[in-house]
Every structure is written in C-alpha cells, then in structure tokens.
Amino acid sequence: MHDRTQLTPQITDTDRIDRLRLIRSDNVGPRTFYSLLNHFGDARAALERLPDLARRGGAARSGRICSEEEARAEIAAAKKIGVALVAPGEAAYPPRLATLDDAPPLLGVRGKPDVMMRPMIAIVGSRNASGAGLKFAGQLARDLGDAGFVVISGLARGIDQAAHRTAIESGTVAVLAGGHDRIYPPEHQDLLAALLERGGAISEMPLGHVPRAHDFPRRNRLISGASLGVVVIEAAHRSGSLITARMAAEQGREVFAVPGSPLDPRAAGTNDLIKQGATLVTEAADVINAIQPIMERPVVLEAREGDDEPLDFDTDPGERERVVALLGPSPVSLDDLIRMSGLSPTIVRTVLLELELAGRLERHGGGLVSLL
C-alpha cells in the first residue's frame, strides 16, 4: 500500500530512477503513476507491465518507455544546475503540494530547501497589469514576507514578477511551466537568479522542456497546491489567474481577490470572484487573519484518492467496450460512468487506466475524463 504516510524520508537511488522512468514514459500522468505504484508495489514492476496494459487499452503499439540511461542522464544534468528530484514526503518537497491527488511523483527543486517547507501564499494576476495593480502586488508581497510567509507565483510578466521582486529578501518560490533550463519569459532569467539566493524554484517538467500553452494550467495547480491560499490581483474574464483560483477552490485552498474598478476589464475576473464568495483583500491582514486557523492544523499526508482503489486487469472485453461506448469528446465524470455502465468502480477505473496508457483518454479538472 503506497499511502504517503508510509513514504520513507528518503527513497533509494534505484527507486528514484525507476520512478523517474515511470513518470517520464508516454501517457503516464501523476494519477496513473500512483494507481500503478499502488497496484504493482513498485515502479519497476509497473514499468514491465506498461506495454501489455497499453495494448489492452487499444494502442496499436505501446508508447515510449523512458530508459534507465535517459533517467540517469536527467538526474545527472539536473544535479549539474543545482536541481534535486524529490518525492512527496521528502525534505524540500512543499508539504501542502504533497497532499494533492495529482502531486508530481518527482519534483525538480532548486534553491534553498528550507524555504520549501515554510507556509506559502500565492500571488497571481494579470500579465498586462496596471501601475496600481503592480504597486499593490509589491506591497502585499512585502507585508506577507515580513509576516514570515513565502510568496509563491509563476514568474510571469505583470503581477507575478512584481510579487517575486518585492519578496526576494524574505524568500519567494517560482513555479516554472517548462524545464528548469527553459525559463519563460526569457527576460526573467535575472529575476530567477536573484530569487534563488534566498528562495527557490520548482518544476515537474523534464530539463529541455519548452513550455507550451497547455503547460500553464498544469503549472497553476502547483502554485495553488503548494500554498495555503491564492490572492488574485487583476484578472480579466477567462484569464489564467482565474484557472488558478478555480484549482485552489477544488484543492480546498483559500481564495482571495483584490477588488478593482468596474470600468477596468482587468478587474472583471477579481470582482466576479468576490461575488462568488472569495475573501475580499485590501491589506495583508485580511489574508493572514483568514489563514491563521488553517496554519494551526498540521499538514497530514493521507492516502491519495484512488490510491487504495484496487485495479482489476482481468476485465472482460465486453465490459471494456461498455465503458468505451459511454466515452466521447465531451468530458464525463467517473461516477457517471460507473452508474451508466452498471459496472464496479474497480472495473471502470481499470479500463480508464488502460485507455490512458494507450493514449486514448484525456483527464480534465474535477475528475472528468474524455476520449481523445
């Protein structure tokens, strides 16, 4: 049983290589990784079964499996630029991030390890922020830093960089959408170098990975997941910051919003968040008072949802077809699939896992899935 309370403080080098091979193999996302690890007992046993499971999911040929040489090369290259690949439960892995159902199985961490263990508040917002928005982001970051919090953000232009710059002295963490050696935007290389002296940077992506559009929402779940709460300063409708706020709410994190003029489209998203129940923020005390009770509760690494759910690889082809027939391009929930198929949760989960390994399934937020 791989619940995270039983993770050893330090996994072995061999296990780290096997885990890296598994998460870097085609079609293996964090949730699939944990299901496989739990079912087969360790990453090496799961790796051996990947081709067979992908075939069962309908893959014409099995996806690429990361080799031991590739994994060793990535660990060595990461080490060269000061990046350690750490597992949930190990030192330097942000404790709140480790509690997510889809926490990165290995996280690339760079900078001061102790800063990762301190309480974090996320500050996010518009890339084309107003002067007032940038000023407030800096003021809030400074006050939160003075109160002992680490400011975490996405190293983007606008609000993110204003928050990072002001919090350099007190410690700030940048969450990267690409590999540690592919900084976006490129002009923030200097900012990253400055914040690494007292803070840190994290990424779940391999070295060399250039960030693409769909990598930013993935990054946003890490920003919210590592923090106690997310403060949104200026966000237009349909902006990335609102995705971060939505993920924060799904993850059970506090959502804060700074009000703005109804005439400024950059404030439309934040004003909406307040209407929907986000805590209104005009000063750091509003954030600190709201999260004080949460900080007094210890962070517990419980078993991930689905970790203890058994899988059944003896599913009958007819049962598999019944699940596949219910799937299409529109996202549907696991509960609906179980109800409509009349099959056990174990069988439905197993079929979805096989489809994912075959590259035929896409997972969405909120436990929804669709057929590719």
Count of DSSP E strands?
12
Summarize the amount of helix as a percent range. Answer: 40-55%
Please tell me the overall pLDDT. 92
Separation, N- and C-terminal Cα atoms: 31 Å
Number of domains: 3
Q: Strand percentage, roughly?
A: 5-15%
Secondary structure category = alpha/beta
3D shape: globular
Radius of gyration: 21 Å
> Runs with pLDDT <50, length 5+?
1-8
Number of helices: 14
Structural features, described:
With 372 residues, this protein is of the alpha/beta class. It has three domains: 4-82, no CATH class; 97-295, Rossmann fold (3-Layer(aba) Sandwich), CATH 3.40.50.450; 317-371, Orthogonal Bundle (Arc Repressor Mutant, subunit A). Helix content is 42%, strand content 13%. It is built from 14 helices and twelve strands. The protein has helices at residues 13-23, 30-40, 43-56, 68-80, 131-146, 159-166, 189-196, 215-226, 240-250, 268-275, 284-295, 317-326, 334-341, 345-357; strands at 83-86, 107-111, 120-125, 150-153, 172-175, 200-203, 229-233, 254-258, 279-280, 332-333, 361-363, 368-371. The strands form two sheets. The protein has a nine-stranded mixed beta sheet with strand order 1-2-6-5-4-3-7-8-9, with helices on both faces. Residues 1-8 have low confidence and may be disordered.
Topology (elements, then pairings):
Elements: H1 13-23, H2 30-40, H3 43-56, H4 68-80, E1 83-86, E2 107-111, E3 120-125, H5 131-146, E4 150-153, H6 159-166, E5 172-175, H7 189-196, E6 200-203, H8 215-226, E7 229-233, H9 240-250, E8 254-258, H10 268-275, E9 279-280, H11 284-295, H12 317-326, E10 332-333, H13 334-341, H14 345-357, E11 361-363, E12 368-371
Parallel strand pairs: 3-4, 3-7, 4-5, 5-6, 7-8, 8-9
Antiparallel strand pairs: 1-2, 2-6, 10-12, 11-12
Helix pairs in contact: 1-3, 1-4, 3-14, 5-6, 8-9, 12-13, 12-14
